[in-house]
Amino acid sequence: MKTIWIGLLCGAIAIDAATASPFDNPRAGGDLSVRMTTLSGSVNGVSAAQVHARILAQRSDPTPDLLLMREKTPPARKPGVAFLLSALVPGAGQLYNGNQRGYAFLGIEAASWFARLSYLDAGNRKQDDYEAFADRHWSYPRFHDTAGEDGCLWTAEADSLIQSYRDEDAKQYYEEIANTDSYRCGWDDFAGSYDPADPDAFSPRRADYRKQREKANQLKDRANLAVAALVLNRIVSAVDAFRVARARQEQAGSYRLESRLTGSPVHPRLDLRVTRAIP
């Protein structure tokens, strides 16, 4: 006949209360404990002591903890500190709060910096390429000497401006020879490609130069988007860290229930504890 032992969880409920108030306790918070202990008996002629003896023969530790259930409340943090940390390093405020979500913000930060530096480097290299291309195929003397030739739009004002840009503003210089028709005769393939029937057409090398500039600008625009992502990530991370820290502070004085099932299968004991953290 199969032996079945049923532990009887009966009432013996003892409430342990300290004579001093929780505020006199040197620990951070008050503590109210409720303990429930079982009474042993016998079922089907087999006493609890006999069952206990069999278990002791198989286990070296007669009273292991069977179950621990505890509501863990992360520590309360200062919202201002959490906000500042995440504003400086996204995710730092979350980690300060004990929130693993901080690693996600750190990952976004790293990815954004990688994108920023990669696109900026690619854009700068592309810029070096198109500037070298322009230096090979466009020249001021050629532009100056074509005054009055068919299709050329030389003017004294344009001549003066391009000299000024060449000496003082390289960025504007390379932009003017790409976009201003007054300087189109400075390209070394203009004379051979000019068609009076289509006077607004670009020479092949000028068109190629414009495409190179466009590609470089696209890469730099993406680098600027990465900067926007860096700023947005800081804002979101800082606000999230502040919000979580403030919510933790508001909950710091609330009660929580801890329960622990200890003892052995023969003599289980359920400990209940109500605690209140005092910030």
From TrEMBL:
Leader sequence segment: 1-20
Superkingdom as given in the UniProt entry: Bacteria
Keyword annotations from UniProtKB, A to Z: Signal
Protein's name according to its UniProt entry: DUF5683 domain-containing protein
